[in-house]
Amino acid sequence: MSEKMQALVVTRPGGPEVLQVREVDRPRLRDELDVLIKVKAAGINPADWQNRKNGAVYDGEGSSQKDPTILGIDGVGVVVEAGRDVVNVRVGDEVWYVDGGYAGNPGSYAEYKVVRADYVTAKPKKLDFVEAAALPVVALTAWEAVFEKAKVTRGDHVLVHGGAGGLGHIAIQYLTSLGARIATTVSNEAKAAFVRELGADIAINYRKESVEEALHAWRGEPGANVVFDFVGHGNFAASFAHTAPYGRLINTVVSDWPVEGNGPAEWKNLDISFVNIGLPQISRHHAHRLRQTAALSQIAELVDRGSLRARIDRVVSFTGVGEAQRALEAGETLGRPVLLISGE
Q: How many angstroms separate the CA atoms of 259 and 182, rounded?
């Protein structure tokens, strides 16, 4: 095994042009609880372009040499080395994980990745590496939003903002399994057809019609019982009007509150929750990371039972990541872009 590897790195914040393919040192096990993974594929997620753009390049525990940051917060691959104290996986196992991609912990835009074995679990058996790479972050985020925050029950009228995106199309499948009535916002007819195929009752083209009016016509009264804001920014404030009185609003994107403050939410007695799956890693909270890894195991079981599938928008090499990130930020993707690192 070579002591070097290829990786896609950033050394300063900026647009896609700051991404650089470099030869860097292959990582080594930090202790006997780690595994070394030959990364086969990685998801291209919003957190990746946000970290690239916003300058999350180094942290207090990063290298004193200020090593370049390797993005990529999830990945899929094969265990090629395991510490002596590792008991849950073995060399040769095909695994997936959510780990790294932040300053101080290199991500999966690289040929090799070191992860604590506690935080990896078997990938779905029915998926190849590319198919599996489209799932970890979006499936885990949607899992926390739908099952842990929203408390959706059968018959609830639910609005999913960004239903054709990586998060949205997974959430729709979870919600369908719960017996929810589903509306979703889309930007074109191709996305509308896609979400209807997944189980959405209605697709609202927000560029051509009023979301509030469409919800009223669908439900017979204002708003949805539960609203998932997977778009954020200005859409978060707009979602207050899309949520029914005593409804639940779940947001996954850092956003500004309405200019009126929390008044609109308090007036309607809204229950507002937030999901940030990166917090356990950044805060180094072991128990919450174990909880997330357990959820990834349950997600793999859903996939293998045929109850969950991912839509792949495109598959790219290192040199195509910049354009994929641009398209993802612009809302032009249908499903999740994937980085193919090793086809061997």
A: 29
Residue corresponding to tokens 């990896």: 120
Which tokens in the block code for residue 29? 């096990």
Per-residue pLDDT, averaged over 140-145, amounts to 98
Distance, CA of 340 to CA of 111 (rounded, Å): 10
Domain boundaries, the chain: 4-135+279-340, 138-274
Q: Mean pLDDT over all residues of the chain?
A: 94
C-alpha torsion sign, points 37, 5, 277, 171: negative
How many whole angstroms separate alpha carbon 112 and alpha carbon 90? 16
CATH match of 138-274 with 3.40.50.720? yes
324 Cβ contact list (under 8 Å, min separation 6)? 44, 313, 314, 316, 333, 337, 339
What residues contact 103, with CB distance under 8 A and at least 6 apart?
56, 57, 58, 59, 62, 69
Structure confidence at residue 61 as a pLDDT band (50, 70, 90):
very low
- Structural tokens at position 125: 């058996």
- Kindly give the pairing relationship between strand 120-122 and strand 94-98: antiparallel
CATH classification of 4-135+279-340 is 3.30.1300.10, yes or no? no
Query: In whole angstroms, how large is the CA radius of gyration of the chain?
Result: 20
Q: Is it the case that residue 60 has pLDDT exceeding 70?
A: no
